[in-house]
Design goal:
The chain is mainly alpha-helical. About 70% of the residues lie in helices and about 5% in strands. Helix 4 packs across helix 6 and helix 5 packs antiparallel against helix 8. It is globular.
């Protein structure tokens, strides 16, 4: 097999493995044997092994020699660490948006949040839960992108993958959607009000409320 083809298969295997991890196909703390993982990914064992090594290098899994692979565990310490790291980036992203007077760029996102909030107050359906998760991540991504820093974006993306694994360890309960949307709207309102410190404070409050939802005392 040519080296370029091998690298391509390894990349495909990693993308497939990452999708399994971040979509809940493999859950936090789950053990899977290498033969079973090969079946799930649908590629030869060599590129799957490379994908597993790559996933381990970014702390998504642990390789258990001669046994298989263990998905990262959603421990309280890791939950706090991952959401804290996201908050550090989000605060600076919010400040940057204020400094660049870029609140208007968030208007479509604000409308999406308001629509989800209004719908959730009437009743939460499984499809609304999925949409709420996507809209939730859209704001965090916008805050990270506001940094305009490729190195920060790479770190943020790795952390996002870990948070996605964590999030699939527990369903997004309906009673969290309304406050989460309200907290996000408060962040965007502060950005629109050209208040850096209030925007950063709203980001920190969202972090505290998120940890409380996970049962972590702050």
């Amino acid at each position: 097999m040519p080296e370029s083809e091998g690298l391509l298969l390894a990349d495909k295997a990693f993308l497939a493995l990452r999708e399994l991890l971040t979509s809940g196909g493999l859950r936090a703390g789950q053990f899977v044997s290498m033969p079973d993982l090969v079946k799930m990914i649908g590629l030869p064992i060599a590129p799957v092994r490379e994908a597993v090594k790559r996933a381990e290098s970014v702390a998504l899994v642990r390789i258990l020699p001669k046994r298989g692979v263990a998905v990262m565990e959603a421990t309280p310490a890791l939950i706090r660490e991952c959401f804290h790291l996201r908050t550090i980036f989000d605060q600076e992203g919010a400040r940057q948006l204020v400094r660049r007077d870029a609140a208007r760029n968030l208007e479509p996102l604000r409308a999406s949040h308001q629509r989800i909030l209004d719908a959730a107050r009437e009743g939460v359906t499984p499809s609304l839960q999925r949409e709420a998760m996507a809209v939730d991540w859209a704001l965090h991504t916008a805050l990270a992108d506001a940094l305009e820093n490729d190195s920060a974006r790479e770190i943020y993306e790795r952390n996002r993958n870990r948070i996605s694994v964590i999030q699939h360890s527990r369903p997004l309960l309906p009673d969290r959607i309304v406050p989460a949307m309200e907290e996000h709207l408060a962040i965007m309102d502060a950005i629109a009000g050209d208040d850096e410190e209030r925007a950063a404070a709203r980001v920190r409050e969202h972090y505290r409320q998120t940890l409380r939802w996970w049962g972590i005392i702050v």
